[in-house]
Amino acid sequence: MSITRFEDIKAWQACKDLVIDIYAVTSKGEFSRDYGLQRQIRDAAVSAMSNIAEGFERGTDKEFIQFLIIARGSLAEVRSQLYVARDLRYVGDGEFNALLGKASEAGRLVNGFITYLRKNSSSKKTSRLAG
Fold this sequence. Notes:
By secondary structure, the chain is an all-alpha fold. The protein has one domain (10-120): 23S rRNA-intervening sequence (de novo design (two linked rop proteins), Up-down Bundle). The protein has 4 helices and no strands. The chain has helices at residues 10-26, 35-58, 61-87, 93-120. The radius of gyration is 16 Å and the shape is elongated. Residues 124-131 have low confidence and may be disordered.
Protein backbone atom coordinates (compact mmCIF):
# COMPACT_ATOMS: atom_id res chain seq x y z
CA MET A 1 0.00 0.00 0.00
CA SER A 2 1.48 3.29 -1.05
CA ILE A 3 -0.51 6.26 0.16
CA THR A 4 1.31 9.55 -0.13
CA ARG A 5 -1.49 11.94 0.88
CA PHE A 6 -4.07 11.68 3.64
CA GLU A 7 -6.68 12.75 1.09
CA ASP A 8 -6.25 9.34 -0.57
CA ILE A 9 -7.23 7.41 2.57
CA LYS A 10 -10.70 5.89 2.18
CA ALA A 11 -11.46 6.32 5.88
CA TRP A 12 -10.65 10.04 5.64
CA GLN A 13 -12.87 10.35 2.56
CA ALA A 14 -15.74 8.63 4.38
CA CYS A 15 -15.32 10.96 7.35
CA LYS A 16 -15.29 14.00 5.07
CA ASP A 17 -18.55 12.87 3.48
CA LEU A 18 -20.02 12.34 6.95
CA VAL A 19 -18.98 15.86 8.01
CA ILE A 20 -20.79 17.38 5.03
CA ASP A 21 -23.95 15.41 5.85
CA ILE A 22 -23.76 16.28 9.56
CA TYR A 23 -23.43 19.98 8.75
CA ALA A 24 -26.41 19.76 6.40
CA VAL A 25 -28.70 18.03 8.89
CA THR A 26 -27.66 20.24 11.81
CA SER A 27 -28.43 23.38 9.80
CA LYS A 28 -32.15 22.57 9.56
CA GLY A 29 -35.15 22.93 11.84
CA GLU A 30 -34.89 22.43 15.59
CA PHE A 31 -31.41 20.97 15.26
CA SER A 32 -30.15 24.34 14.03
CA ARG A 33 -31.34 25.94 17.29
CA ASP A 34 -29.85 23.38 19.66
CA TYR A 35 -26.41 24.97 19.68
CA GLY A 36 -24.96 22.55 22.23
CA LEU A 37 -25.80 19.33 20.42
CA GLN A 38 -25.18 20.92 17.04
CA ARG A 39 -21.68 21.98 18.00
CA GLN A 40 -20.89 18.70 19.74
CA ILE A 41 -21.85 16.45 16.84
CA ARG A 42 -20.15 18.72 14.30
CA ASP A 43 -16.97 18.83 16.39
CA ALA A 44 -16.93 15.05 16.78
CA ALA A 45 -17.35 14.50 13.03
CA VAL A 46 -14.64 17.02 12.16
CA SER A 47 -12.39 15.51 14.84
CA ALA A 48 -12.56 12.08 13.22
CA MET A 49 -11.54 13.48 9.85
CA SER A 50 -8.84 15.72 11.32
CA ASN A 51 -7.27 13.00 13.45
CA ILE A 52 -6.80 10.78 10.42
CA ALA A 53 -5.04 13.62 8.60
CA GLU A 54 -2.90 14.61 11.58
CA GLY A 55 -1.93 11.04 12.39
CA PHE A 56 -0.91 10.36 8.81
CA GLU A 57 1.28 13.46 8.72
CA ARG A 58 3.07 12.42 11.92
CA GLY A 59 4.96 9.96 9.78
CA THR A 60 5.15 6.88 11.99
CA ASP A 61 2.76 3.96 12.11
CA LYS A 62 2.75 3.98 15.91
CA GLU A 63 1.56 7.60 16.07
CA PHE A 64 -0.80 7.11 13.16
CA ILE A 65 -2.48 4.20 14.94
CA GLN A 66 -2.94 6.37 18.06
CA PHE A 67 -4.66 9.06 16.00
CA LEU A 68 -6.81 6.49 14.20
CA ILE A 69 -7.97 5.21 17.60
CA ILE A 70 -8.94 8.77 18.54
CA ALA A 71 -10.79 9.10 15.21
CA ARG A 72 -12.65 5.87 15.97
CA GLY A 73 -13.72 7.31 19.32
CA SER A 74 -14.94 10.49 17.66
CA LEU A 75 -17.05 8.43 15.26
CA ALA A 76 -18.58 6.64 18.26
CA GLU A 77 -19.44 10.09 19.67
CA VAL A 78 -21.20 10.98 16.42
CA ARG A 79 -23.21 7.76 16.56
CA SER A 80 -24.16 8.38 20.18
CA GLN A 81 -25.21 11.94 19.48
CA LEU A 82 -27.30 10.80 16.53
CA TYR A 83 -29.43 8.77 18.96
CA VAL A 84 -30.07 11.94 20.96
CA ALA A 85 -30.98 13.82 17.78
CA ARG A 86 -33.39 11.07 16.78
CA ASP A 87 -34.98 10.84 20.21
CA LEU A 88 -35.47 14.62 20.24
CA ARG A 89 -36.99 14.30 16.75
CA TYR A 90 -34.35 16.56 15.19
CA VAL A 91 -33.89 13.86 12.54
CA GLY A 92 -36.33 11.34 11.22
CA ASP A 93 -35.70 7.62 11.07
CA GLY A 94 -34.52 7.77 7.46
CA GLU A 95 -31.90 10.46 8.11
CA PHE A 96 -30.89 8.79 11.35
CA ASN A 97 -30.34 5.43 9.65
CA ALA A 98 -28.43 6.97 6.76
CA LEU A 99 -26.14 8.98 9.04
CA LEU A 100 -25.66 6.11 11.47
CA GLY A 101 -24.75 3.90 8.53
CA LYS A 102 -22.20 6.42 7.25
CA ALA A 103 -20.64 6.83 10.69
CA SER A 104 -20.51 3.06 11.14
CA GLU A 105 -18.93 2.55 7.72
CA ALA A 106 -16.32 5.22 8.46
CA GLY A 107 -15.58 3.43 11.73
CA ARG A 108 -15.24 0.12 9.90
CA LEU A 109 -12.73 1.69 7.50
CA VAL A 110 -10.75 3.18 10.40
CA ASN A 111 -10.71 -0.21 12.16
CA GLY A 112 -9.54 -1.88 8.99
CA PHE A 113 -6.71 0.59 8.62
CA ILE A 114 -5.66 0.09 12.24
CA THR A 115 -5.59 -3.68 11.68
CA TYR A 116 -3.61 -3.26 8.46
CA LEU A 117 -1.03 -1.00 10.10
CA ARG A 118 -0.63 -3.27 13.10
CA LYS A 119 -0.06 -6.29 10.85
CA ASN A 120 2.19 -4.68 8.28
CA SER A 121 4.24 -2.23 10.27
CA SER A 122 7.81 -3.48 10.07
CA SER A 123 8.88 -1.13 12.83
CA LYS A 124 6.53 0.98 14.84
CA LYS A 125 9.26 3.61 15.05
CA THR A 126 10.12 3.67 11.34
CA SER A 127 8.85 6.69 9.47
CA ARG A 128 6.51 5.94 6.58
CA LEU A 129 7.27 9.28 4.96
CA ALA A 130 11.07 9.23 5.09
CA GLY A 131 13.20 9.12 2.00
